[in-house]
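Workshop exercise sheet. Pairs work together: one partner reads the sequence aloud, the other fills in the structure field after running the prediction. Swap roles for the next sheet.
Pair: D.N. / O.F.
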Amino acid sequence: MSLREIARRSRFCLQYWRKHLKEARVVGAHGVGFSQPIKDIANGFFPITAHELRSIHGDLDGLITSLQYERYLTGMNGRFAVMLDNKEAFGKLVSTAGIETPENFCVFRAGRILWNENGQERLRQTLEKTGRFIIKPTNGKQGKGVKICRDLADLKKHDGFDAVVTSFVFQADYAKAIYEPSLNTIRVLMLRDRDNRPVPLRAFHRFGTLKSGSIDNLSAKGISASVDIESGALGKAAVRNEQGRMDLLDQHPDTGSQISGVQIPDWDLALKMVEDLGNAFPFLTFVGWDLAMTPEGPTVIEGNSHPTIWAMQYYDRYIADDQIRGLFSQYIPNLEPTRL
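Structure field:
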């Protein structure tokens, strides 16, 4: 190991020492000896990430480390990240580019409601047709603060945080059959190649659970299933168990509906949408696009400027894959398969 790499790992240990300590205690509560988290931290992994990945793969060989992610992959979109982080700006830019996304009717800003052109009339028409609309935080993450509304009076009940008001998205039948209460979205990871072309690298499909309710996000105790990037077929679903380990299941843990082997309809259109998004915003380098499949085809819900790669690595050893390693090696120096 070079002196430079030793210095990087030392900084990783010191910079995130609070997170390391907190996560070491969490995995320790699941019966993992304290020496294992120390080894994982020394090898560049956050303890919980290492615990989950090891429970699936058996080891951490051929995986991008937490250190590599934090050091080289966060902040890749620079000052342009704001167009993804701000839901108001995102909706306007995407719709202007002619790409399907939920319609924005108005925004709450500094306690005031500001209507888009014809927004009031469009919201009334939409409510008559669909019976619901959405209020979500302008800068929200992980599905937090999203509210499903069924009456215009809900606008007056809004508690003041900056938010956008959008149309409700009705999902395709296959997603409803697996778990209906949540909008079950697909995360497609996009990275640019050496010719600056947007490449849909990998994808996974999130689903809500009884524990997550109307939210499909993993942080809210939802689940995720791998997606074959070429065909759009679903693979096994990763479910976090009571020991903090990841189980891989063929069926939804609550509904019993089949997940593995289910085909996502219009997958070619979903990949085309990711390509269109990348071409429309050539200044964005590394994005996690969240798509929903509707009866009419895909719609983009949001883009994530700092997309996590851990759920993707539940299903792939990234560095062991020649294509993925080739793409990431543009941004992560000395990226070679490791044995840990």
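Discussion prompt: DSSP finds 13 helices and twelve strands in the chain. What would you look at next?
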